[in-house]
Amino acid sequence: MGAHRFVVVEGELAIVRLGPDDPVPGWAAGRGFVSVTRTPQELSIVGPVEWVPAGVPSEAGWIALRLVGPFPFDQVGVLASIVGPLAGASISVFAISTFDTDYVLIKSTSLAGAIAALTRAGHVQEKGP
After folding, report:
1. End-to-end alpha-carbon separation of the chain, Å?
2. What is the span of the domain harbouring residue 30?
3. How many structural domains is the chain composed of?
């Protein structure tokens, strides 16, 4: 699977769950890290914790690790090579994939352990935007 480079994305994120027919709220249209996924069961939004209004069903305290891509669609095992060492360190994840790369969200309290587990597995932390 190989070693990969990753960057810790600045800022705390929240994961929001809305109803499957709810409209995408205006606060989710800002710049920065935002992911909107609609399924027949729910509308999930990931974005900066400070954007989420009080009373909206959410879980805060997440940090994103960005895998340095882009990765071709036929490259196999990229996400598995990251999630495996994290699972081995008992760190749960919330994964998001984009056209170019993958993001792995972890609880902010697990950041030091996640970095240690990934570097032990041969992955390299980079500084970056």
Report:
1. 25
2. 5-126
3. 1
Q: What is the pLDDT of residues 56-74, one digit of tens each?
A: 999 999 999 999 777 777 7
Q: Quote the tokens at residue 119.
A: 């570097």
Angle (CA) 106 17 31, round 5°: 70
The CATH number of whichever domain residue 79 belongs to comes to 3.30.2130.10
Q: Which two tokens stand for residue 14?
A: 């929240």
Q: What is the pTM of this model?
A: 0.88
Query: How is the chain split among helix, strand and coil, in percent rounded to 5?
Result: 25, 35, 45
Q: Which of 29, 41, 31, 33 is nearest to 14 (CA)?
A: 33
Which portions of the chain are predicted below pLDDT 70? 1, 129
